[in-house]
Amino acid sequence: RMETDCNPMELPNNTGFEEDSAYTDFEGTEVKDMRLEAEAVVNDVLFAVRNMFVSKTLPCAEDVAYINVETRERNRYCLELTEAGLRVVAYDFDQTDDRLQTPYHETVYSLLDSLSPAYREVFGNALLQRLEALKKESQS
């Protein structure tokens, strides 16, 4: 996205942003901003990994974002998030390796499940605790 120093009030009314196809898809709905999507992914599973954050050095765009994750086993990965899903693009933070041909995962859960047995255990335990709480709630 372009940043400008001008006052938006100084812009002419016919800027065309509303009709600009770069900002909307064919149904006229807003395109997902992958940085926001990446932040949501991080917030969803941060409790089950050692560290996870959206990369500040690799470029985020409307169609791609990069997430650094360190599993509880202390393995580091750089993940690419696109409309196709998530995949490992490097075995360290803030890196990409074009030679890596890793599969896309539809969800961060399945990706982390394949990378980290400790993630699987922590996530499973959290799920069980939530189910127990719901069970108690419904009995009271």
TrEMBL record:
Pfam families: GSKIP_dom. Residues 34-134 form the GSKIP domain. One of its GO terms (biological process) is regulation of canonical Wnt signaling pathway. InterPro entries: GSKIP, GSKIP_dom, GSKIP_dom_sf. One of its GO terms (cellular component) is cytoplasm. Signal peptide: none annotated. GO terms for molecular function: kinase regulator activity; protein kinase A binding. Belongs to the GSKIP family. This is GSKIP protein. It comes from Formicarius rufipectus. The gene is Gskip.
